[in-house]
Design brief:
The chain has five helices and no strands. It has 139 residues and is an all-alpha fold. α2 runs parallel beside α5 and α3 packs antiparallel against α5. The model has no long low-confidence stretch (mean pLDDT 87).
């Protein structure tokens, strides 16, 4: 049985080891471990989010002379973000405080994949506004 002082040294060493582990050093590897797969999903989401923001800014610029439209678009975008977050909350709802109890180690991967899909769909929708104006039903 470990003495109290020995146990404290083990905890300190473990703490130092964990502090030295740089999470930002994790790289995406499509055939890697769960952390590496999660990083791929995060990279994909960040790319989709950048594309959405660029598309949104292009639309704002294109319609800059129509203040009423810009105000409505900004409100629509804020509403879409609330919808996206609520949709994800519903998709990954769980009665447990820690959602990983319900979804396991793949939670981050699944969540980020779903968030990426919703973000890409929104970017596509805004792109249609750029291409067709308010006639978004035009194919």
């Amino acid at each position: 049985m470990m003495k109290r002082g020995e146990m404290m040294r083990v905890f300190i060493c473990l703490g130092l080891l964990l502090a030295a582990f740089d999470v930002s050093a994790i790289e995406c590897k499509s055939e890697g471990n769960q952390l590496e797969l999660n990083q791929c999903a995060l990279d994909d989401f960040e790319k989709a989010d950048r594309a959405l923001n660029e598309t949104y800014q292009t639309l704002i610029k294109q319609m800059q002379d129509d203040k009423t439209y810009i105000d409505a678009l900004r409100e629509a975008q804020r509403a879409w973000i609330r919808f996206r977050d609520a949709e994800l909350k519903a998709m990954f709802s769980c009665d447990e405080e820690d959602v990983r109890v319900c979804w396991g180690s793949m939670y981050n991967l699944l969540y980020l994949n779903a968030k990426t899909e919703l973000t890409q769909a929104r970017a596509k929708r805004l792109q249609r506004f750029i291409e067709h104006g308010r006639n978004v039903w035009v194919e």
